[in-house]
Amino acid sequence: MKKLKSSTDHFTGREREALHGIRRQLSDEVRPLLVLCLGSMATTTLRRNLSAVSKAAATDFRFVCELVLVLPEGANLLKDRAGLRALERRLSRHADVRLVALTPEGLAVQLASGRNARINVHSDAIVLYERDGTLGKVVQMVAERATTVPYRNDEIASAAPRNDVAHNDGEVASSCLHAMTMPVGLSAEERADPLSVVVAFFRMYPLPEARERVAAWLQAVVSEPSWPVVETGRHLDFYVSVCRLVSCAALLRGYATPLWVLQMLEGKDGGAGMPPQSLYCPQEVADAWAYFPNHLSRAEFGAPGVVFRDLFAEHAPGVWLSALYDLFGYSLTDCTPAEVDDDCDAPGMMVALNRLIEAAHLLAVWTRRAGAGRASATGVPPASSVKRAPVTSVL
C-alpha cells in the first residue's frame, strides 16, 4: 500500500475517538491479527434550533469507515457473513463500519494481484491494530508472490528475485511495495509484446492530443474548478491508458534502438542535424512539428529505451502509478496547489510524463513504419527483418 500510517493524529478529536473505540472493541471481541483502515468520511451537519422548548443537539456527526479485518485461518467470521454483519451493527455505536474479512494469505493475494480497487499496493491505509508481526509477514508473502508468479515471456521470468523487504513494521516501507508492483492492466500477451500496447495507445491518442490532455490534467490538479463532469469518462479512459503505457515503458527499459533508425540518424548531417521527419511523424501531415518530441534531447531521440531507464531510475514504476493515482484524484476535486499532498510534485511529474509519452511515441512510429515495410521510401527493412529489442522486467 502506498502510504501506511500508524497514527491518527491527522484526524479530528471526534474521528480519533471513533477509531479508538472501534479498535478497542475489535481487539476485545475478535482478537484479529491486523486491522487496516482503507478510508473514512466524516460529516457534521449544523442545525439551527428555533424551538424554545426542545433541547436537541445543534449538530449531527456521522463517521463512516472501511476496515480490512485480518483473521487467523479457520476463524468463524471468514465464512460467516451474517456474523460479520452483526459485528458491524455492534460497532455502529462508534461509526458506520464496513468490514472485509481476510486471512493473511488472502490479503497478500489481493495486494499482489491488484485486482481490487480498494486493496492494492497503490491504496492508502492506516494500521489500527496489529499483533504477532502480521504486517511484516504479509509484505513478505507479497514479495514472494511477486518473484514466483510465472510469466510466459522467458526473459521476464528470468528476473532475479528481490530481497529488499522492509523489516520495520512501523514503516513497512512503500519503496518495497512499489518495487514489487507488477505491470498494471496488461495481459500475459501484452507483457510479452509491450510495443503492441504502445502502438495502440497512439492510435487512440496521437501525440498532440496526448500533450493537450496532460496539460489539461495538470491544470485541473493545481487550480479550480476541477475536471469538467461531462469529460470525466474520457479523462478516466486516458488515465487508465497512461497507466498501461507506464507499465509498458517499464518493460521496455533498455530497449535497443533498431539499426535502421541509427543509420538514418547518422545519415542526416552526420547525426548532428534535425532527425528525419519520417522518424517522428507517423504520416505526412501539414504540421509535422506538432509530433516532434521537444522534451527530449538529440541523444535521447535515438535512445528511447535509455529515457525509460533514466525515468524509472528516478522513480520506481510503483511510485509512478501511485503518483498518477493521486493526480487523477486531485483533478476530480476543487483544490489549490497548497492543498495538494506535499509528496506529490504535480508539475515535475507531468514533465516526466511528457518525456515518457514522447519516447513511447517514437517507438510507436518506428514500429508502425517497420511493420509497413516502407523500404523504398525510408530505407526501413521489412518487418520480419527488424530485430526486436529484448524485453526486460519491471521488477
Secondary structure layout:
Layout: E1 3-5, H1 13-29, E2 34-46, E3 59-70, H2 81-91, E4 96-102, H3 104-113, E5 124-130, H4 134-148, H5 154-157, H6 174-179, H7 188-192, H8 194-204, H9 207-222, H10 232-251, H11 259-267, H12 298-301, H13 304-314, H14 317-331, H15 346-372, H16 375-378
Parallel strand pairs: 1-5, 3-4
Antiparallel strand pairs: 2-3, 2-5
Helix pairs in contact: 3-4, 8-10, 8-15, 9-14, 9-15, 10-14, 13-15
Structural class: alpha/beta
Mean pLDDT: 76
Largest sheet: 5 strands, mixed
Strand content: 5-15%
Q: How are the strands of the largest sheet arranged?
A: 1-5-2-3-4
Shape: elongated
Describe what this molecule looks like in 3D:
The protein is of the alpha/beta class and 395 residues long. 47% of the residues lie in helices and 11% in strands. The chain has helices at residues 13-29, 81-91, 104-113, 134-148, 154-157, 174-179, 188-192, 194-204, 207-222, 232-251, 259-267, 298-301, 304-314, 317-331, 346-372, 375-378; strands at 3-5, 34-46, 59-70, 96-102, 124-130. Strand 3 (59-70), helix 2 (81-91) and strand 4 form a beta-alpha-beta unit. The relative contact order is 0.11.
